[in-house]
Automatic annotation (TrEMBL):
This is Cleavage stimulation factor 50 kDa subunit. The keyword Nucleus applies. It comes from the Eukaryota. Pfam families: WD40 (PF00400). The keyword Transmembrane helix does not apply. Signal peptide: none annotated. Gene3D superfamilies: YVTN repeat-like/Quinoprotein amine dehydrogenase (2.130.10.10). InterPro entries: CstF1-like, WD40/YVTN_repeat-like_dom_sf, WD40_repeat_CS, WD40_repeat_dom_sf, WD40_rpt. It comes from Perkinsus marinus (strain ATCC 50983 / TXsc).
């Protein structure tokens, strides 16, 4: 996995089947990873200032086991 542009990772959330990982970091972005391939699937951005990026819950939909 590539780091959050050299910034610390604040939180991680695994999907129920442990295939996907959602992370948030000091770069003000959340990233979705496929743990089978190690590839980044999506980047969620929008914060412009330092914020608490912790997740209360994450919901994964689709072919979830």
């Amino acid at each position: 996995l590539k780091p959050h542009s050299g910034h610390p990772v604040f939180t991680v959330q695994w999907s129920r089947n442990c295939r996907y990982l959602l992370t948030s970091g000091g770069d003000h972005r959340a990233r979705l990873w496929d743990m089978r391939t190690g590839k980044e699937l999506m980047v969620y951005s929008g914060a412009t200032t330092s914020t608490d990026c912790s997740f209360m819950t994450a919901t994964f939909v689709g072919n979830e086991q």
